[in-house]
Design goal:
Elements (H helix, E strand, L loop, with lengths): L1 H11 L12 H11 L18 H11 L1 H19 L5 H34 L6 H11 L7 H15 L13 H12 L21 H7 L6 H7 L4 H6 L11 H13 L5 H20 L22 H8 L10 H21 L7 H30 L2
């Protein structure tokens, strides 16, 4: 290892100030700090008050996404087999899923990486590690049928307008992956919504559970409508349903959450409060159910936990330390309101049954304000008890 370190330093001399490859120093720095632990102090936010540096924290998040990624690949192939009426084969499903998913991930990384390097070279700063997380998060929120050029356009918008215009990693107000996803949804709704985009088989249509629930007629049993479409709580929890690549399995998201909590990367307060807000709001709608109400009102509250992208969003998006609330009390408020808004968007607006993305983006905007009032309240309380 010592020999390898010495050779890397010799190569690094070519990238020093005044040397031929000076402008490409961010590329060398990214490789150097990826392979070896850097002996530098972070010059700006976000700061990690731990022996583990920011690059390692981002690596842990990527590792936590492995279960959702692998299951997303498998489920994509599984849905293809089911649509074509083929006999199920685990390895065949993995191969078919990988053929669809891996190009999406690669394009997301290549297009996003281009902008990261360009801004790093232009601004003469290090390549931000947050790109490793943004690239895979964005890919996992997409349907397997998404055109690759739209993947490139979406991640470009997310990196440039969701992060770089604010100053880069640690300065962004909104989660860049969600900004990219929201841009694609509103710019190209035909390729990211509807019943034709979730299974990678031409001419095959199947609505997601949320779409089925939203389309159920007033006064009808929403649970029965889901059952008629082939959905129950079990297959939604495990993830054997059509949907965005990495969002279908609540179980895979819980596996990632366990890893993030053990490594103390994610805040459990945000995740728990998201679930509480969702259960409270959906419980209120459940109590208001009736024959004159939308069928979605009668969906049992706990079903919302395993439907759509809520589990994925609560675990991997809402817990983003940059765009989330920073105070403990603020995290409770922030997460609770995300849960509440998710249900409000899902139930009250049948035209847009998935509300997690917009709920998180909306609360990203209010996270600094929440922290401000929490801190001000602490200051006022301490002043009252000051002798």
């Amino acid at each position: 290892m010592k020999f390898f370190e010495e050779q890397l330093k010799k190569v690094g001399q070519l990238f020093e100030k005044g040397k031929p490859l000076e402008k490409l120093y961010p590329l060398y720095e990214a490789l150097d700090t990826f392979l070896l632990t850097p002996g530098k102090t972070a010059p700006k936010a976000p700061f990690v008050r731990d022996a583990v540096d920011l690059k390692r924290v981002m690596s842990l998040v990527v590792l936590a996404l492995v279960p959702a990624t692998l299951f997303g690949i498998y489920n994509t192939g599984y849905q293809i087999e089911a649509a074509k009426g083929l006999a199920h084969s685990f390895w065949a499903a993995m191969a078919a899923g990988a053929w669809k998913v891996i190009p999406i991930v690669l394009v997301s990384y290549m297009a996003g990486g281009f902008w990261e390097v360009l801004f790093a070279v232009t601004r003469k700063h290090e390549i931000n590690e947050g790109f490793f997380v943004t690239g895979i998060l964005f890919a996992l929120t997409l349907p397997p049928t998404i055109p690759l050029w739209q993947v490139a356009v979406g991640i470009s918008f997310g990196v440039v307008f969701g992060k770089e215009i604010f100053g880069g990693t640690g300065m962004n107000v909104f989660n860049p992956a969600l900004v990219a996803r929201a841009f694609l949804f509103f710019a190209y709704p035909g390729q990211i919504s509807g019943s034709t985009v979730w299974v990678a088989v031409d001419g095959y249509t199947r609505a997601t559970p949320l779409a089925v629930a939203a389309a159920a007629p007033r006064g009808a049993s929403v649970v029965q409508a889901l059952a008629d479409a082939g959905y129950n709580f079990s297959n939604m929890f495990y993830g054997f349903i059509p949907g965005s690549i990495g969002e279908t399995s609540a179980l895979a998201c819980l596996a990632g959450l366990a890893f993030l909590l053990v490594t103390r990367v994610a805040s459990w307060r945000v995740v728990v409060s998201c679930a509480l807000g969702l259960l409270v709001m959906s419980g209120i709608f459940y109590l208001l159910r009736g024959s004159d109400r939308l069928a979605f009102f009668a969906l049992p509250p706990y079903w919302h936990l395993v439907m759509g992208g809520f589990a994925f969003g609560a675990v991997f998006m809402a817990t983003d330390p940059v765009s989330a609330a920073a105070t403990d009390t603020g995290r409770w408020i922030y997460g609770f309101l995300i849960g509440v808004l998710t249900v409000l968007i899902r139930v009250v607006n049948p035209a847009y049954p998935e509300g997690t993305m917009l709920a998180i983006l909306f609360m990203n905007a209010f996270a600094p304000l929440i922290d401000y009032f929490v801190v001000e309240n602490h200051i006022k309380r301490r002043l009252r008890v000051k002798p």
